[in-house]
Amino acid sequence: MSDSVDARLRDYNTLASSFVLGLFRLSEARIVALTTAIALFRLHSEPPEADGIPRDNAIVDELRRISYSEYDSFRYVTDASLLVYATTLLDTFLTDTTRFLLLLHPDSIGDNQTVSLKSLLSAASTAELITDAALRRAREISYLPFLGRIEFLRKKFGLEIVLNANTVADLDHYSGIRNVVVHDQAVFDVRLDHSGVLEVSRKTCPRHPTLVKSTDLAAALRAYRVVAVAIYRDVVTRVLKSHPDENFLRAVAAFDRGEAKAPLEEPPRSDA
After folding, report:
1. What residue ranges do the domains of the chain occupy?
2. Residue partners of 96: CB distance under 8 A and separation at least 6
3. Residue 260: closest CA among 271, 248, 272, 268
């Protein structure tokens, strides 16, 4: 393997590691959310002295003040937020992969990209202009649905990205829910009635505007991991003509087996 191929493989593995780090972050956040929910449930369902633990300290009193309505809102927003975050991880991985391939093969950016006079005058080099064009092209592609973005990678770079029917259906379904959560939490609809009079009417549940179940996250993540691994394998084998990093594959697979665990050491803070 040539040095240039080695370098490109390291670069792509570095980009792909963001997806795994995001999975770790999501897993830890979900553990905290589930632990909090379980603790609240037990606190309200067990006798005051259950397990010999006093229930009269200040912290417990504060938790007891949380009403069911507040807990229900917490659960709904948490489920919706975790699904949005999980979908964003795949969204980011797709964007990073698209940018990587466009910059690896600048001819693939296309002949219809326009460069403003301001960009020409301010650019420090041709490489900067190409990078900017690739970023703009990747941004354009990111507006497509996930399946459309995957099809772009297939056609433009000769990837196969083989996905079964269930994965395709789940990818479309859960990314669609994400879009609704992000863009529409309205409870009411406004329209003109048959006589042309403006009317406002309820269109969905006031407490749960989008139907998001606690089981949706696991199902969505299964599909997202399958998609990410399929794209990763094809980029490494078909474009870079190399072998996938087993560390990446094992890390993603660990989430399917429920074995993923982040290191106990506290990492350096990003704002340090």
Report:
1. 3-112+145-256
2. 15, 16, 18
3. 248
Q: Determine the distance from the C-alpha atom of residue 255 to the mean position of all C-alpha atoms in its chain, rounded to a whole number.
A: 15
The torsion of the CA quartet 21, 22, 24, 26, rounded to 10 degrees, works out to: 170
C-alpha neighbours within 13 Å on the C-beta side of residue 42: 12
CA distances from 153 to 14, 95, 158, 200, 202 (A): 19, 11, 7, 43, 41
Selection from 86, 80, 87 nearest residue 25 by Cα? 86
Phi, psi of 54 (to 5 degrees): -60, 145
- Number of other CB atoms surrounding residue 171 within 10 Å: 22
Q: What share of the chain is helix, strand, coil (3-state, %, to 5)?
A: 65, 5, 30
Closest CA to 62 of 43, 76, 49: 43
Among 96, 104, 114, CA closest to 18: 96
What is the maximum alpha-carbon separation in the chain?
75
CB atoms within 10 A of CB 6: 12
User: In whole angstroms, what is the distance from residue 60 CA to residue 75 CA?
Assistant: 19
| Local structure of 24: helix, strand or coil | helix
Assign 256 to helix, strand or coil. Answer: helix
Contact 162, 133 (CB under 8 A): no
pLDDT in tens, the chain (272 residues): 566 778 999 999 999 999 999 999 999 999 998 888 888 877 777 655 655 555 567 777 777 788 889 888 999 999 999 999 999 999 999 999 999 999 999 888 866 655 554 554 455 566 777 778 888 899 999 999 999 999 999 999 999 999 999 999 999 999 999 999 999 999 999 999 899 999 999 999 999 999 998 889 999 999 999 999 999 999 999 999 999 999 999 999 988 766 555 444 444 555 54
